[in-house]
Each structure stands twice: as C-alpha cells, then as structure tokens.
Amino acid sequence: MLQIKPILAALKRHKAGTILIAMQIALTLAIVCNAIFIIHQRLERVQRPTGMVESDLLAIQSRFVGTQETQAGPLVKADLVALRQLPGVQDAVAMNSYPLRGGGWSTGVRTDVDAKNSKAHTTQYFGDEHALGTMALKLIAGRNFRSDEIVEADPQALPDPAVIIVSKALADKMYPDGSALGKTMYIGDSKTPSTIIGIVERLQVPWNGTWSDSFYENSLIQPVQLTSAFTNYLIRAKPGQLADLVKAAPAALVKTNRMRVIPSERGVRTFAEVREYAYKGDRGMAILMGVVCLVLLGITAAGIVGLTSFWVGQRRKQIGVRRALGATKRDILSYFLTENLLIGVAGVVIGALLAVGMNLWLVTQFEMARLSVTYVLIGVVALLGLGQGATLAPAMRASRVSPVEATRSV
Amino acid sequence: MFAYYLQLGLRSLRKNPLLTLLMVLAIGCGVAASMTTYSVFRATSNNPIPQKSSQLYVPQIDNWGPESNEDNKGEPPNAMTYTDAINLMRDKRASHQTALFPAAMSIVPTDPSMLPFRETSYAWYADAFGMFDIPFLYGHAWTSGEDDSHAAVAVIGKTLNDKLFNGTNSVGKNINLNGRDYRIVGVTEKWNPEPVFYDVINTNGFDDPIQVFIPFTRAVELQTTTNGNNNCNHDPGKGWDAWIRSECVWVGFWAELPTKSEAGAYRQYLNGYSAEQQRSGRFRWAPNTRLRNVTEWLDYQKVVPQEAKVSLMVSLGFLLLCLVNTVGLLLAKFMRRSSEIGVRRALGATRKEIYIQFLIEAAAIGLAGGVVGLVLTGFGVMGVSLVFEPDIAKLATLDVSLVLLTMLVAVLATVLAAFYPTWRAAQVQPAWQLKSN
Questions:
Q1: β-pair partners for A261
Q2: Confidence band, pLDDT 50/70/90 cuts, at residue A410
Q3: Are B382 and B394 within one domain?
Q4: pLDDT tens across A53-85, in order?
Q5: Residue B137 and residue B272 in one domain
Q6: Is residue B51 part of a domain?
Q7: Chain A neighbors of B26, CB-CB under 8 A
Q8: Which residues of chain A make contact with B387, given a CB cutoff of 8 A?
Q9: Residues from chain A contacting residue B424 (CB–CB below 8 Å)
C-alpha cells in the first residue's frame, strides 16, 4: 500500500487504458445493479402466494353457444352436477374468475354508506358454497356460505349480497382494529350493506400486473351463481387424479352439452400452467437480466485480463529491474493488484453514480421502484472482487518475471 | 493493397487467437443482445397502417367529468358510451366513421361432428372496411343500407373461409354464429396489422387476426355483450337497456379525416357536441375532448410493452460496454506491435496506410463478430417467447433487414471502436522503435 505514488505516476503514462478499465467497471456496475434490482423485483412478484392450495387444481373456461348471454343458469348448474359426479373430482365451482387468470371484476368498497370515496379497491369473485373448498382457502374467522344463501343472478342485474366472505387484507384495510367479522360494508354504489361472515387468510386478485399491486390481496367472494354463458370452472381433483381429469373433465362438459366452446388455447389448464403463463413475462425478464449480468461480468473480467496482460508485457524490463534491485515476487504481485484496485475504486465511484442516475431515469420512464443502496453496495463489492480476480493471473505472471530480464538489451 | 492489408490483419489475428476470440465474442454478444431486443421493439413500435396513420382518428369525449378522471390526468375515458358512439355515427361529420367492439362470436359448423369454436370477431360499420384498407378475396363489404336495416350479414376472414369452405368462394352461403344464420357477403384477404391499432384497448395491441365481422347494429339488436372491457364510473342499473343507456364506456370509435382542416373541423364538432350535452344537463363540466391519429393513439396507449423498452435500453448499454472493452483490447493488440509499425513506417508506409491497415483488421474482427452475433441473434429471437407474450413473441423474426442490420452494426461499431487505437498506432515514431530493438 506504500506504492500508491509510483503506481499513480505509472498510470499517468497509461491514461487511455486506465480510463477504459474504469469506464468498463463503471458501466458494468450501473447495468448490473439495475438488472439485479429488476430480477429481485420480478422474483418477489412471482413468489406471491395465491392463498389457494395450487396442487390438484384444474381450470376450464367455457362459453355456451346459442343461448342468451345471461340466461345460462340451468346449463351451468347441469355442468356442475356433471363435474361433481366425476370420479376423481373432490369438488368443483363455477366462478367469474380466479387468481392469476388475468381478467376479472373490481370495484370500490366503503364502510360508510354516505362516504363519497371508496375506502379500498377490491376484486369481486362470485361463487357458491363450494368455492372455499374447491380453492382450499384457509378460513381464519367466521364461516363458509350456506347453500340457502346462494342466489342465481344475471351479471347485468346483480343483487346486493346480504353476506360476503373477504380476504384478511381487505378486512384489515376496512377495519384496521381487526374487528371486521360480523361488520358490514358497501360494494360499489350500493346502499345496502353486506355483512362479513367469513375471513380467509389470503386470496389474490386475478391480475398480476403493476396496476393491481396496490390491492393485490384485496378480495371478496359474493354468494352468487352467475347465469352468464361465459364461465370459469375450478375443479379440485382427488390426490393423484389431476392428470386423468385434464381429459375427463372437458369431455364430461361436452357430453353434458356440446353447444359450447372450450378454447383450444388455454381452455383447459392445470393451475401450475395458469401460474406459469401468468408469470412468464416476469420469469423471462429475470432470466434475461441474469444472462445479461453474467455475460457482462465475463466480458469485463476478460477485458481487464487483456489490458493487464498487455501492461505486464510492456513492463517486463521494468519488472526485471525492480526484481534485480531487491523487490520480492510479493511486491510485484501487490503492485498490480493495488493498481487494479485504484482503477476499480475510481470505476465503482462513477458506476455507483451512474447506477443511481440510471435507476432514477427508469423510475420516471417506467413504473419502477427506487433502487435500494444495498444493491449498489453489493455491486461495488462484486466488481472490486472481480477486478482483483481478473488481475490475479497476469499479476502472477508478472511476479514470475526473472531479474535476469533487467540485463537483457535495454 | 486491400487484399494485402486483409492478409496482414488475418495473420495478426491468428497470432493471438485468444485475444481475437475474446473481441469477436464480445462484439457478437453485444450485437446479438441489441438486435434481439430491437426485433421486439421494432415489431411493437411498428406503424400498422402507414398510408393512413395520419388520417384515421380516435375521438374521445369526457362523459365522466373531472371527478372520475382525476387519476388519469384529466384525460377522457379511453372508450365511448353507446350513446355517444351512436350520436357520432348519426351526425356523420367525418368522411367515414365506425363504432366497433369485439363481439363474443362462436361459430357453429354445419358438420355435426365438429364442435363449435371461437374466432376473433368484431362488430362494426360498413365504412370500416374501406377506412382500414382491408383487402377482399371474394365479394365485398356490406352496405350502409344493411347497417341501417340491422341485416344478418357477415364478412369472414381467409383463415376461417379455408377452414369452413376449403378456400372456395363462400359469398352467398350462410354461416351460423351464436346459433343464428348470417349470409356471407365477403371474404377478406389475410389482414393482420401489427399492432392491431383498431382496438388497442381490449388487446393491448396484439391479437390474432379478425375472422368474423358483423354489422354493429345487428350485434346490438341481438344484445351481444362486448368481449372486451366495460368500464363504469357508476352502477349502470339492471339489464341490457339500462346498460346501453348508461355512462359505461365500452365502444371503440374511428373517424377518417383526410386533411388537417377536416381534423380541425371535427375537433370543433366534438367540442360543440360536448357543449350540447352540457346544455342538456348530461355533462356537468366544460367540453373535454381529444382527437388522436393512429400514431398518437398507439403512443398514448403505450402499445410498446415496458419490457421491450427496458430490455432494449439494457442491451444498448451492454453493446456500449462491449465496445469499450473492444477499444481496450484493440489498443493492447495494436500497441504490442509498435515495433512492427515502426519498421513499416521506416520502410516508407505513410500514416494513412497504417490507418487503413488497422481499420481493415478491425473490420475483419467486426465481420467475425457480426457472424457470431447473427447466430446468437437467431437463438435470441427464438428465446423471445421466454420474456414476451406469444402474441408479441411471434412478431420478432430474423428477416433479411435484421440480418443486414446485425452485420452493419457489428462492423460499424468495431471500426468506430478501432479509431482511437488506430490513431495511437499511427502516432508511433519509427525512430524510437528502431532504436530500442
């Protein structure tokens, strides 16, 4: 560390190379910090639980043809009877949507009938008393719907529900003191209160984009069997029966009524497939950023190796002279490592500023969060380490330069 | 001379294969990453109807008022109410206009062994075919008279025609949609604008081509609900009639206004219309309207996915880094040959010749990098579906223009990166080098 002065003097004679290495380190740090931050954000989203038990769950989308859009009540009922009778089916429910499906209903809710603005935003699920069991939601307070509470309704003429089940997130938002069970709330513009009879631990909304991030666990279930021609069936298979049901369940539906369309693309999906499809973009982005980071680090390391090797080659004679004058191998090694560290420090300082600047720009352009300092620190340490690692091989070679070199033609 | 320099260059490249390989790979990776992400960006930012993008407009009318569009920076809703759409259709102030919505249509094949199936279907007016320059394979669009009479007519797409009628002329035949018969009046050629500008709201810009078109008036008469978004600021009330009279927005609208002055006049008309609604008591706020053409509309709706932009930015940064890296390596490489340069200069080579020699060597590296980049871009384009939705991923293709661009970017970037090292090489003093050895 006592060699800093001569190192700086030497670097002055290699301005171009020094600047190039520092620039590489700075750029790599800026990109890698932001990339890792994006990866972390995406992975965090992917890991959100839906609140359901996702194994042994099958989702089928169906639309009746040739029936009035809102008059399919009896047909849906017949479907449910057929599905629930199938061997291998534990339970089944017809719903408007389900977590991670992509499309669904949302509305504002109030606790005060006269309030002008809603207190929270929530998704609305419609289903009968089988909904909880089929999704295998964890009821943490209250009870499930009774079959006599279920009403059939046209989606264009929905009755205000007397009772509802809500997710804990919504319950806490509406009644922060934890007293939601048994209390009432008003859905949309309704003037009629709905009583909360049950609270489930968690139930995610159908969307997974950034727009629903502010309410992604606010859900309520209304005891309504919709009569619309478009329905999503959720089917819970008995253990080990899911694979058979992928074929048997749609076949049973077609057998019950063939005047229907089950889309060939994504019409019948296990929930694992639903999840994979929903988070494809997030996972892909994480993979892409990961690959970019790795290649970047590789290229930067290679660049450092290349330039340091060049310097070592250029200075063989000087190294020989130093060795002849009594410098140990260690001294030579530490000379090059210190040199790289100095350049590296300059690089990471600029890089940290660049990383923050880049992130601020991304924040203004895209809906992205602020970069936390931890990422920058991790990046700084990683890049300094990378620099030292990359310098090691050429520096070792330099340290092996024999003092005899000094005597060769100067 | 060129051949000689190239030979010199290649020989020098062979001398330290590791360094050369490193540069080629760096350039290849950088170019491939940029080109892959660019292919997606290019597809998503494409102008889908260049010949008319400044003549087709989306009018927006604020029927919700300042209270409801607070979150939206005062912009009117993205779609129209049925009421406003019908009024604009009735007034016919544009040379052509259409209201539209994606209708949930299922096709019931006459062959009883075939199950019903869905195709992308839209309900709109006869004008739309001409406005959007939709080419016909057989027959033609329905007439405005058929719009007015709510006729049970349909235009189908080529793919559907191939599927149902084996590609023969099906004009005059019937097709069963949602259990009702429609007479086919036309079959369109493949028409697949990307992004699907006509309905960005419900598709996010990317969808399968439309295979079924029916008159808007017919679809509404049959109470066909939209297959797209329906947004309400208040409970619309119960039943179909309440819904179409409500302030819920779900109808798309396009007007064709060939000149700037016509567009100006239409803007005035929209404001006048809103003022009239204000007078009648329906709107309790001053007119707040917008009129955006295709490019403005796609831009406003942010059709280019965020992923496409972010990944393009990251890849360009990546390419920049690869170039900085190349500058460094080339510098090392060229300077190592100082003595060679000295000899050449002493034997009479001019600075210019040194420049040319080293730039050619760099171009050779760039070319090799381009080839590597091309192969990697090929893999990259295949892997696009990892990040983007299938509707978008299938648009990213490795076509001739992308191949040429990849090579061009690789060579240009490398030559650019070589300028500084070459300049340093050309500065070498022959005397110095000759003396020291």
A1: A63
A2: very low
A3: yes
A4: 999 999 999 999 988 878 899 999 999 999 999
A5: yes
A6: no
A7: 299, 302-303
A8: 280-281, 284-285, 287-288
A9: 16
Residue B135, domain member (yes or no): yes
Q: In whole angstroms, what is the distance from residue A301 CA to residue A306 CA? A: 9
The answer to whether A357 contacts chain B (CB < 8 Å) is: no
Element (H, E) at A170: helix A168-174
Pairwise CB contact (< 8 Å): A306 & B328: yes
Close Cβ partners of B15 (under 8 Å, ≥ 6 residues apart): none
| CB-CB under 8 Å, B310 with A366 | yes
Report residue A277 as tokens: 């499809």
Q: Which residue of A31, A38, A284 is in closest CB contact with B317?
A: A31
How many structural domains compose chain B? Answer: 2
ipTM of this complex: 0.78
B323 plus B214 within the same structural domain: no
Is there a single domain that holds both residue B248 and residue B356? no
Which of B300, B318, B341 is at the close of a domain?
A: B300
Q: Can you give the pTM of this predicted structure?
A: 0.83
- If asked whether residues B259 and B366 sit together in one domain, one would say no
Give the span between the Cα atoms of A209 and A176, in whole angstroms.
Answer: 26
Q: Is residue B364 in a domain?
A: yes
Residues 6+ apart with CB under 8 A from B70: none
Question: Is A67 in contact with B179 (Cβ distance < 8 A)?
Answer: yes
Flag whether B155 is in a domain.
yes
The domain of B257 spans 56-300
pLDDT, tens only, A143-180:
999 999 999 998 888 888 999 999 999 999 999 998 99
Q: Which B positions 370-389 lie with beta carbon below 8 A of chain A?
A: 386-389
And the tokens for A27?
Answer: 């750029």
Residue from A223, A202, A232 nearest A140 by CA = A202
Residue A196, helix vs strand vs coil: strand
